[in-house]
Design brief:
The structure holds 2 protein chains of 2 kinds. By secondary structure, chain A is of the alpha+beta class. Chain A contains 13 helices and 12 strands. The radius of gyration of chain B is 28 Å and the shape is flat. Classes of the chains: A alpha+beta, B alpha+beta.
C-alpha cells in the first residue's frame, strides 16, 4: 500500500474540503471493507484517506414525510435490526443478509455498499476496469468470464455491479443525497449507477469532490417486496445472480411492478420488460416465469456465462413468488 | 483377540498394546491437549514470532507464466529508508517456469516498507510462450508427452466378449492448491553460528539439514552443520503434504538474517501461497469398463492425462482399489504447464484415482441396471482386502440408510430438487515412520515425553500423552508432552499418515523401558521384585495386592537424585505388535441439487474407516471430519482459475478460490472400525478419509441428476450444462 495522509473530519463540510478534483487525490473511508483491499492490491492509491467515521450527521436512521432516511455511514448489521426496515422492506433485509460474512456486515456501510468497486478479477489483478492487457486487448470476452455480465455488456464494461443493496433500493424507488461544496443534490438510486465508458471513471454518479450522505426510501405504501439471491454456498461468497422486486398490488393483481436484477450487468438492472409482463397479472408460477423470461430476453451472455441467464431467471421468478407470498 | 486374517506370524511381545479390558486411557474420548491453547490464542505460530529487531521479508515473484529474466536492478529498493537487505534469487538469464516463481527478496523494518521495496525492484523479462490449462489436450501444443503404459491380461478379448456390457465415459478432476490457512514460511534467528528457525513445517527433523546443506556452500557460513540449526514448530496451521522441506524463501530468510544480523521473518502472502505453496495435480481420462451381466468386472481401459505443473503429472494408481481387474490397459500423458508445481497433497494421486475409477465403475453399475452397492459388493474380491471392504460397505449402507435412499438414476424426485447418493472406496498404507522417544521420569514424579515430532493439528501431542500416561498408569495430566523441536530425539516427518504409528510405538517402548527402571528402583522398598510390580491408577503396587503400594510421587522419590531417561525406538528389533500398514475405507455421500440453479448441496456424508487401534478417538474422528470437509471443498468449489491469454491465476485469493464454510458441509457421520481391527496395532489415518469424498459426491450427483457432471468441481455452470440448460461454453 502506498503511504497516504489520513484525515478524520467531524462534519460533512469539513470532509468536502479535504477532497480533490480528481480521482486518486483522496479516498473516502467508510467501513474500509473495499477501500483497504483496493489499496493493498495497489488498484487504488489515494494520496489522502478521508475517514467518515467521525461524522455524526452520516449516522442514524430516521423517518420523515419523504420516507426512511438512512445515513450513509449506517452499518449493515445495524440497518437490518431497524424496526421499520424489518417491517416494511423484506427485500432490503434479504439483500443485507446476503452480504455473506458477519464481519463485513458489522463493518460495511450503506454508502460503502453502493459505492464499492467491481469484483472483476481482471480489474482487481491490475488489468484496469475494462480488463485490458498491455497491448489494449480486451481480456474478458475470450477469458475467464463465468461471473461477468450477461446484460448491458455491449460496451467495454463487462464487469457486474457488486452492490447488494442497489437492486433492492431501486425496486423500492429510493434516492440518494449527494453533498458537494455547492450544496446537496438528490438522485434516484437507479440513475446513481452508471456504466462507465472510460476505464478511469466510476460506476456511480459521484464526482471526486462529492460525498454520498444518505439514502431515502419512500414509504412502501403496502407494496410487496422481496429479494432472491442465487448463491453457490453459504460461506463468504458473492451471489451468482439476484433479483429484487417491489409490487404495487390491487387485490391479487399487480398494478405496477419493479424488477431489478443484480450481478448480471455493470449496474443493477431494472427490467422494464419484466415490469410490463407483470402489469395486470396475478403472481403465480407461470406469470413469474414469463416475467423472468422477459427480463432476460435481451441477454447477451459471454463465452462462459450462458448459465447465468438461467440463474437470473430463477432469481426473478423466486423473488416474485416470495413477494407474493407463494415461495 | 488378534485375528490371524489381519496380521499373521507375530508373537506376543512385552511392548504390545494392553488388552482392551486393561486400557484406561487408550480408546477413550479425551479432548485434544492443545485445544485450550488454540481457542484462547495462547498457541503461538511462526507468524507470531516477534523477536527484538525483527525484520520482515517479502518476495518479489514473477508476474509471468513463463519468462526469462533479462536484467534485474535492485538499487532503488536498496535506497529505500527501512530496507536493510535485498537479495536476487533469479539472476539475469534465469528462466522462470510459472507465475509466482521467486525473483528477489527484501528484508525491511516493517512489512509495509518491505512491500514497497519489492515494488522498487526493476526487472526486465523476456516473455516466453506459456500453457496454463491442460483439460483440452488439443490445445496443449507441444507440452505433452506419453509417460506410462501398463498392460495386463488380454484387453481386446475381454471387451469383445459377447457376454459383457461396456461402459464408456469421460471423467476428470482439476488441479487445486493446498490453500494452507497458515502460509509457508518461518522466522530465522541467528546466535553466532547457531540458527533457530521458527518454522511452519511438517518436518522439524528435516528442515535444518536442508538449510545447513545449502548454507555450507555459501561464503561465510561454510562451517554450518545440521546440528547448528534448530527448528521449532509448536503449532501448525495446515500443511497437507506441502511443507516438508526448507523452501527457497526459507533459505533466503536465513541468509538475510545472517547478512543483517537481525531476525528475519518471511511468510508467504496469500497470493504467493496459492500460486506456489503447492498444488494437487489434475487428472482427466477416457475410460472403458467391461463387466459381465452378473456384475463381475473383467476389463479396464484408460487414456488419461494430467498436469502437476512444469514437470507434467504422473498416472494415478488406476484402476483404484479394484486392482485385480483381470484385463487392463492404462495409457497416460503428462502435460507440462506453466503453473505452480505440484506437491504431495493429502494422499497424493489417490483422490484422482478414486474419481476416475469410482466414477467409471458407478457408470458401469448404472449400465448394468445394478444398485452400485450390490455392484461394489459383488466385486470386492478384486481388491486386496475384500472382507474389510464388505464389512465397511455394509456398515456405511446402514449409516446412510442406503436402501431407502438409493434409486435408479433419473428418479431423484419429481420437483426441481433432486436427491441422490453415491459410493467411493479407498485405500492407503499408513506405515509407522522412524521415531525415537525419550521418556524422563523425575524424582519429583514429573514425567516428560520428548520427540522431535510435530503436531499438525492432527492430535499427535494428545496421542503421545495418552500412550505414555496409559503405560505409566498415570492420568493424562501426569505427562508433559514436549515435541515440535529438532533438539528432541529424531522422529519422522509428518506425511503419508506415518506419524501416529511412529510416535505411538516409540512412546510405548520408551515408557515401558522407563517404567521397568522405576519398578526396579522401587521394588526393594515394597519388599518384592520388579516383575511383581505394576503401575496403575497413579500408584506403583504389587500386582493384585493394592495394600502393598506407593503413590507415583512416593515411588519416584525412591530414585533419590537420579532421574530415569529411556529412549524407545520405532522400528525396533523386538518388533512387537504395535503398528501395521494398509487400510481400507468406504464413504457414501448424499446430495440435494436444485436443478433450476445447478447448485449442489451435500446433505450427509458417511465415512467408515479402519485404521487398526485408535488411540485417541476424538482427534481421530476430527481428522476424518476435516478430511471430508476438504473433500467437499474439492468436489464443489475449489478451482485454480488461470487465464490462458495472460498466463495468470485470477483467483489467487480467498475470495474466488472458494472453500466451504460450516454451513455448506451437511451432516458428517464418522464410523471407525474398531474392536476386531484393534489387533493390528496403530495405522495412520490422515490421508485415507481425504480420498473418497470427491468421488462419492461425484457419484451422488450422477445418481440425483440421472446424468454425469463429468469434471470436478461440480459448479452450477457445469451442472446446468449437463442438464442441457446452457452451461460454460
Amino acid at each position: 500500500m502506498q503511504t497516504f495522509e489520513y484525515a478524520n473530519p467531524k462534519t460533512v463540510k469539513e470532509a468536502l474540503g479535504l477532497l480533490g478534483s480528481q480521482w486518486g487525490e483522496a479516498g473516502l473511508l467508510a467501513g474500509g471493507t473495499d477501500l483497504l483491499s483496493l489499496m493493498k492490491d495497489y488498484v487504488e492509491s489515494p494520496k489522502r484517506v478521508v475517514s467518515l467515521s467521525g461524522i455524526k450527521e452520516l449516522k442514524g436512521v430516521k423517518s420523515s414525510g419523504a420516507g426512511l432516511h438512512i445515513g450513509a455511514m449506517v452499518v449493515l448489521e445495524d440497518l437490518v435490526e431497524n424496526g421499520t426496515v424489518r417491517k416494511e422492506y423484506a427485500s432490503l433485509v434479504a439483500a443485507i443478509r446476503g452480504v455473506s460474512s458477519p464481519q463485513i456486515r458489522a463493518m460495511g456501510t450503506v454508502g460503502g455498499d453502493l459505492c464499492q468497486r467491481p469484483r472483476c478479477w481482471y480489474y482487481r489483478k491490475g488489468f484496469g476496469l475494462f480488463g485490458r492487457d498491455s497491448n489494449g486487448r480486451e481480456l474478458v470476452p475470450n477469458g475467464e468470464n463465468r461471473y461477468h455480465a450477461i446484460l448491458g455488456n455491449s460496451g467495454p464494461a463487462k464487469f457486474v455491479s457488486a452492490s447488494s443493496l442497489g437492486p433492492a433500493l431501486i425496486a423500492l424507488g429510493a434516492k440518494v443525497t449527494i453533498a458537494s461544496a455547492s450544496g446537496n443534490r438528490s438522485v434516484d438510486v437507479e440513475k446513481f449507477f452508471v456504466t462507465p465508458s472510460d476505464p478511469h471513471s466510476r460506476e456511480v454518479d459521484l464526482k471526486p469532490n462529492e460525498i454520498l450522505t444518505e439514502v431515502v426510501i419512500p414509504a412502501s405504501g403496502g407494496a410487496k417486496n422481496a429479494t432472491y439471491e442465487v448463491r453457490q454456498k453459504e460461506a463468504l461468497d458473492w451471489p451468482l445472480a439476484t433479483a429484487s422486486v417491489a409490487l404495487k398490488m390491487s387485490g391479487a393483481t399487480v398494478q405496477s411492478a419493479r424488477v431489478v436484477l443484480g450481478h448480471v450487468a455493470p449496474t443493477p438492472w431494472n427490467s422494464t420488460e419484466a415490469a410490463q409482463a407483470l402489469a395486470g397479472k396475478s403472481i403465480d408460477e407461470s406469470t413469474a416465469q414469463a416475467a423472468a423470461n422477459a427480463a432476460l430476453s435481451k441477454a447477451t451472455p459471454l463465452s462462459q456465462n450462458a448459465y447465468k441467464v438461467q440463474l437470473a431467471k430463477v432469481a426473478v421468478k423466486r423473488a416474485l413468488l416470495a413477494a407474493a407470498g407463494k415461495a | 483377540m488378534r485375528p490371524a486374517s489381519l496380521k499373521e506370524g507375530n508373537v506376543p511381545s512385552k511392548y504390545d498394546w494392553p488388552p482392551a479390558e486393561k486400557r484406561s486411557l487408550i480408546g477413550k474420548r479425551h479432548n485434544r491437549l492443545d485445544g485450550p491453547h488454540k481457542a484462547t490464542g495462547a498457541a503461538k505460530y511462526a507468524l507470531d514470532r516477534n523477536a527484538p529487531g525483527l525484520l520482515h521479508g517479502k518476495l518479489l515473484i514473477s508476474p509471468h507464466a513463463h519468462a526469462k529474466v533479462v536484467s534485474i536492478d535492485t538499487s532503488e529498493a536498496e535506497k529505500l529508508a527501512g530496507v536493510k537487505a535485498v537479495r536476487v534469487i533469479a539472476a539475469a538469464g534465469t528462466e522462470l517456469m510459472w507465475q509466482g516463481s521467486p525473483v528477489a527478496v527484501v528484508a525491511a523494518e516493517t512489512e509495509e516498507v518491505a512491500r514497497d521495496g519489492v515494488r522498487k525492484i526493476k526487472v526486465n523479462y523476456e516473455v516466453l510462450p506459456h500453457l496454463v490449462k491442460e483439460e483440452d489436450l488439443n490445445k496443449a501444443g507441444g507440452f505433452t508427452k506419453p509417460s506410462a503404459e501398463q498392460n495386463q491380461g488380454n484387453v481386446e478379448q475381454a471387451f469383445a466378449a459377447s457376454d459383457v456390457v461396456v461402459s464408456e465415459g469421460y471423467y476428470g478432476i482439476n488441479t487445486i492448491t493446498h490453500c494452507c490457512l497458515e502460509p509457508h514460511g518461518l522466522a530465522a534467528e541467528w546466535d553466532g553460528d547457531n540458527c533457530t528457525l521458527h518454522s511452519s513445517t511438517q518436518a522439524v527433523g528435516r528442515v535444518g539439514g536442508d538449510l545447513a546443506k545449502v548454507l555450507a556452500a555459501d561464503p561465510g557460513t561454510a562451517n554450518i552443520k545440521p546440528a547448528n540449526v534448530r527448528v521449532i514448530t509448536q503449532y501448525m496451521g495446515g500443511g497437507f503434504g506441502s511443507k516438508f522441506s526448507a523452501d527457497r524463501w526459507d533459505i533466503e530468510s536465513a541468509r538475510l538474517s545472517k547478512q543483517t544480523g537481525k531476525p528475519v521473518k518471511l511468510l508467504l502472502e496469500r497470493d504467493a501461497e496459492l500460486l506456489m505453496g503447492g498444488a494437487r495435480p489434475s487428472d482427466y481420462g477416457k475410460i472403458k469398463v467391461a463387466a459381465k451381466r452378473d456384475g463381475s468386472i473383467v476389463g479396464w481401459q484408460s487414456e488419461s492425462w494430467s498436469t502437476g505443473g512444469p514437470t507434467g503429472g504422473g498416472m494415478p494408481p488406476i484402476p483404484y482399489v479394484f486392482t485385480e481387474i483381470p484385463n487392463r490397459r492404462m495409457r497416460h500423458i503428462a502435460v507440462s504447464t506453466h503453473t505452480g508445481p505440484q506437491r504431495a497433497w493429502r494422499a497424493p494421486n489417490h483422490q484422482q484415482a478414486a474419481v476416475l475409477t469410482m466414477g467409471a465403475l458407478d457408470d458401469t453399475a448404472h449400465k448394468l441396471g445394478m444398485n452400485p452397492l450390490d455392484f461394489f459388493l459383488k466385486n470386492v474380491g478384486l481388491t486386496p482386502r475384500g472382507d474389510v471392504y464388505r464389512a465397511e460397505l455394509l456398515k456405511a449402507a446402514e449409516l446412510m440408510d442406503w436402501k431407502a435412499k438409493w434409486h435408479p438414476r433419473s428418479q431423484g424426485g419429481s420437483g426441481h430438487i433432486k436427491r441422490g447418493v453415491g459410493i467411493s472406496l479407498h485405500t492407503w498404507g499408513g506405515r509407522a515412520h522412524d521415531s525415537d522417544c525419550r521418556i524422563i521420569i523425575n524424582p519429583d514424579g514429573s514425567v516428560q515425553a520428548q520427540l522431535g515430532s510435530q503436531d499438525l493439528g492432527t492430535g499427535t501431542r494428545t496421542v503421545i500423552g495418552i500412550v505414555a500416561a496409559e503405560t505409566l498408569g498415570l492420568p493424562l495430566s501426569g505427562v508433559q508432552v514436549q515435541i515440535g523441536d529438532s533438539n528432541y530425539p529424531a522422529s519422522g516427518a509428518s506425511g503419508g499418515s506415518t506419524t501416529v504409528g511412529g510416535v505411538s510405538s516409540s512412546t510405548r517402548r520408551a515408557s515401558i523401558k522407563a517404567l521397568d527402571k522405576l519398578l526396579e528402583a522401587v521394588a526393594p522398598s515394597l519388599g518384592t521384585t520388579a516383575d511383581k510390580l505394576v503401575a496403575v491408577d497413579g500408584r506403583v503396587q504389587v500386582a493384585g495386592d493394592a495394600s502393598k503400594s506407593l503413590t507415583w510421587k512416593a515411588a519416584c522419590a525412591k530414585l533419590g537424585t537420579r532421574k530415569i531417561e529411556e529412549i524407545g525406538r520405532q522400528p525396533a528389533k523386538d518388533e512387537g505388535n504395535l503398528n501395521d500398514n494398509g487400510v481400507g475405507g468406504v464413504q457414501m455421500a448424499e446430495v440435494e441439487i436444485d436443478t433450476e440453479t445447478g447448485i449442489v448441496a451435500v446433505k450427509k456424508t458417511v465415512a467408515v474407516q479402519d485404521c487398526g487401534l485408535v488411540i485417541a478417538p476424538k482427534t481421530a474422528e476430527s481428522q476424518v471430519l476435516g478430511a471430508v470437509i476438504m473433500g467437499i471443498c474439492s468436489a464443489l468449489y475449489e478451482e485454480r482459475i488461470y487465464d490462458q491469454q495472460v498466463g495468470k491465476m485470477l483467483n489467487a485469493d480467498m475470495e474466488f478460490y472458494k472453500l466451504s464454510g460450516i454451513g455448506d458441509v451437511g451432516e458428517i457421520v464418522v464410523h471407525m472400525m474398531t474392536g476386531v481391527y484393534d489387533g493390528r496395532g496403530v495405522i495412520g489415518l490422515g490421508e485415507p478419509p481425504a480420498i473418497s469424498p470427491p468421488a462419492a459426491i461425484y457419484n451422488a450427483v450422477a445418481n440425483a441428476l440421472g446424468v454425469r457432471v463429468t469434471t470436478i468441481p461440480m459448479t452450477p455452470d457445469k451442472v446446468l450444462a449437463a442438464l442441457g440448460q446452457g452451461g460454460r461454453a
